[in-house]
Amino acid sequence: MKQITQEFPNDVRFVYRNFPLIGTPESPFHDKAALSTQAAEAAGKQGSFWQMYDILYSRQSEWSSLSLDEFQQWLIERAGELNIDVKQFTADLTSQELVDFAQKAWDDGQAELGLSGTPTLFVDGHPWTSSTPLDHYSIATIIRLELLAYDQFTECPPITINTAKQYTATLHTVKGDIVIELYADKAPVTVNSFVFLAQHGWFDGVTFHRVLAGKLAQTGDPSGTGYGTPGYAFINEISPDLQYNGAGVVGMANSGADSNGSQFFITETALPELNGSYTIFGHVIQGLDVVNDLTPRDPSQSGELPPGDEILSVTINEK
Amino acid sequence: MRKALLILILLASVLLSSCLPETQASPMVTAMKTASPVPNTDVGMPTEVGVPVTSDCTVKTLRPSADATVEAPYPAITSADWSEGPADARVTIVEYGDFQ
Questions:
Q1: Could you say which residues from 3 to 42 on chain B have a Cβ atom under 8 Å away from some Cβ of chain A?
Q2: CB A157 to CB B94 under 8 A?
Q3: Where does chain A hold its CATH 2.40.100.10 domain(s)?
Q4: Range A167-318: architecture per CATH
Q5: Hey, are the CB atoms on B21 and A145 less than 8 Å from each other?
Q6: Mean pLDDT for each consecutive 10-residue tract of chain A (319 residues)?
Q7: Alpha helices by DSSP H, chain A
Q8: Does ipTM surpass 0.90 in this model?
Q9: What Å distances lie between residue A12 and A8, A84, A255, B64, CA to CA?
């Protein structure tokens, strides 16, 4: 969580609440759950909650198998390493107030919130499901999508293009310009949306988040996660005479028919398997070398990915 | 809760997005698909924000409510809570944890 709050210093607030898995006197669950909660709260009384929080989580292996008495002693030693009044800490640690606090946290967590285990995470009020790995990548992805939601549109784009005119789009990328001729006549809904998004700055600063060398380069998602949408979805526009028959074909990414949003891709080779399922709405007339030069990154590969190359802005030319 | 459900359901649909057919879904994508948390609430179908302009296009925004914690299933966050990050942050993560 520390990493998350550092990564999103202005956008994420992290709140920690105790749910010590105490159990019942007949069948106790975690024998040191209450005392560790009390330790963090006791340190918190002297402004050192997060320091004790860090100690408890990062040095868990040191104390998890200690007896209660040994653990209490261990906690007092750790308090001595913090800049706090150890005598006061020792008194607070087992005070009735904090014993009651820990018990109430356990009781309330079960009775009022229906919590069943830890850690239980809520993102903007909705619960994290146990089947999702609680790892940094998943949490960061969800956060990016939550943030993208603030920028999404709440209406579909009005029709502003004239299908009798010719449109080109220039993607100004950090690697150079890519000029695309748009098929306003064959894919009017798609081109209208693309022009709308470009004119609203949607693509500015967006990366090519998925670049499969020699195959295709995909972009158009400001969240950079590959899951982002502009807040609306529109139909497929398939023209039988338009095919993924070589490099430079520009198509819409989708998650099934009629789920087009803002993500699009440029081919670097023929991809006939895409014919019929992905709207083609343009082709590259200049800058194919720029496409081929984009930094490869495949989000389906595990491990650290290089940063994607950015689109600085997109300009639309109408004539 | 309704708003939260809306966000969850739409998130679920978004999570399926944008995998071109010739590639495998990443482990992450697989995980996120199952993430699609279907909360066990008794609310009906979510209300979409905005209305479709034409049948060619449908609004599916995920825009959160102004105060996402209003309908959260936990007690309101107060100054008594231990928290890091700005109080007016756009995303709030609440963790219920056990140190042991």
A1: 4-5, 7-8, 11, 13-29, 31-32, 34-37, 39
A2: no
A3: 167-318
A4: Beta Barrel (2.40)
A5: no
A6: 91 96 92 97 97 96 96 97 96 98 95 87 84 85 92 94 96 98 97 98 97 96 93 96 97 93 97 96 98 95 90 97
A7: 2-7, 33-44, 49-58, 60-63, 68-81, 86-93, 96-111, 136-149, 188-199, 288-292
A8: no
A9: 6, 29, 29, 14
